[in-house]
Amino acid sequence: MAVILRAADRRAVAWRNGGGLTREVAAHPPQSDLGNFDWRVSLAEVRRGGPFSSFPGIDRHMAVISGRLELSISGRDVVSLSSETAPLSFPGEVAVYAEPHAEPATDLNVMTRRGRFTARLTRCGVAASTQVRLEADTTMLLALAPLTLCAAGIDASLSALDAARFSASAETLTVRSLAAGGAFWVIEIRTA
């Protein structure tokens, strides 16, 4: 079964430090808040430099969707992230400082409660169509361009930044691009 999560329905929440805003895509359990989620998927717009909030016991997975972001993670070299770089994972309790380059950066954030859930992010391009196997406990697709999704009982269209959430079914989903250069992120969340 698919649940379509429209970008237009997301509420923007400003950060306390004024450096950006976050839009939650989905969380588990439903209606959980930042203190008691098992996993959470969100999009953040980083408008100016500043520290990340600390999330003890949480594993963070992040990918930049637009713009460029310099990330300083305690104990690691500074990294420059863009839409072309691989996702990055780090513990939620370490000190992290982000600085956008010249313009705001938008990033995809997936947070999982350590020891209970794990996550994997994969960026996929679509020339005409591609197949995605729905095997994780929860699989989400985040469209970066207009897409159509087809499988048994599923026929849906997504606009840019819309998402679709699926429970494990071992089905194969066909993803078709409605524009040249179509792409999407696959977020797989599994019980640890």
Quick overview of this protein structure:
This protein has about 190 residues and is mainly beta. It contains no helices and 19 strands. Helices cover about 0% and strands about 60% of the residues.
Descriptors:
mainly beta; six-stranded antiparallel β-sheet; 192 residues; five-stranded antiparallel β-sheet
Give a description of the structure.
It contains no helices and 19 strands. It is an all-beta fold. A six-stranded antiparallel sheet has the order 2-3-4-11-6-9, with no helix packed on it. It has a five-stranded antiparallel sheet with strand order 1-17-14-19-12, with no helix packed on it. It has a four-stranded antiparallel sheet with strand order 5-10-7-8, with no helix packed on it. The radius of gyration is 16 Å and the shape is globular. The protein starts with a strand and ends with a strand.
| Poorly predicted parts | none
> What series of H and E elements makes up the topology?
EEEEEEEEEEEEEEEEEEE
Question: Strand order of the main beta sheet, please?
Answer: 2-3-4-11-6-9
Mean pLDDT: 93
Structural class: mainly beta
Q: What shape does the CA trace take?
A: globular
Number of strands: 19
Number of helix segments? 0
